[in-house]
Design a protein that fits this description.
Length: about 140
């Protein structure tokens, strides 16, 4: 079993290559951010058990662990930034509907820190547009 001990450098490379291919795929087919996020989360899930098998004295292990924890949000944010022009249109549409709701009930609107979309109601803990956990989210 120990013949397949991965190094942190190898896994970092694998992560970068896989993430890039998902992002490139998403860009060329203009996928919704949620779809890209789902693929990245799946990759994250596959990488997690591999982290355990990296030798503890690997100098890049800490960097790898941090990367595995953060790359999903980082890639989705980068994708949102790339998408920006169409995103603005979406946000503006959402903003006007949110305003309607707000004037009626008088509650404050929680916005997604990644794309700026408003939370539709209290029960929603993830941005419905890009999947980023929203303020006060428990999941
Ligand atoms: Zn969002």
């Amino acid at each position: 079993m120990s013949s397949t001990t991965p190094s942190a450098a190898n896994l970092l490379e694998l992560l970068a290559a896989q993430a890039r291919s998902f992002v490139d795929g998403a860009r060329s087919s203009r996928s919704p951010p949620l779809e890209l996020r789902a693929k990245l989360v799946e990759l994250q899930r596959e990488l997690q058990p591999m982290l355990e098998r990296v030798p503890k004295d690997d100098v890049l292990l800490e960097l790898l662990e941090r990367r595995v924890l953060t790359f999903v949000d980082a890639e989705v944010r980068a994708y949102l930034a790339w998408q920006k022009p169409s995103l603005r249109i979406f946000q503006n549409a959402l903003r006007s509907t949110a305003k309607h709701a707000q004037t009626k009930v008088g509650i404050s609107t929680v916005r997604c820190t990644a794309c700026g979309a408003a939370r539709e109601n209290e029960a929603v803990h993830r941005c419905q547009y890009c999947g980023t956990p929203l303020l006060g989210a428990t999941t």
